[in-house]
Amino acid sequence: MKFIMSNGAPACFAETREEAVEILGTAEIQEIPHRDLSTRDWYAAEAAVPPSEIEAWWDKVETCFAVAC
């Protein structure tokens, strides 16, 4: 799931670092613990993807992390 964080950085949720590199198109990524995402960041993620897709995505992954360029 790709989204723009509140600081303007492109970001995504990915299951692995390799998936994040593929999604973002760069190996220069920064891992962000979920607890460090602001409320605005969560709203940005939710706005980028329809709620039904977010629910389906969360249901299929057990672990994941956020990354930003």
Written account of the structure:
The protein has a 4-stranded antiparallel sheet with strand order 1-2-4-3, sandwiched between helices. The protein is built from 3 helices and 4 strands. The chain has helices at 17-24, 39-48, 51-60, and strands spanning 2-4, 10-14, 30-32, 65-68. The chain has one domain. The two termini are 14 Å apart. Helix content is 41%, strand content 22%. It is globular, with a radius of gyration of 11 Å.
How are the elements arranged and paired?
Elements: E1 2-4, E2 10-14, H1 17-24, E3 30-32, H2 39-48, H3 51-60, E4 65-68
Antiparallel strand pairs: 1-2, 2-4, 3-4
Give the structural class: alpha+beta
Strand order of the largest sheet: 1-2-4-3
Helix/strand order, N-terminal first: EEHEHHE
How big a fraction of the residues is strand?
A: 15-25%
Mean pLDDT value: 78
- In total, the number of strands is 4
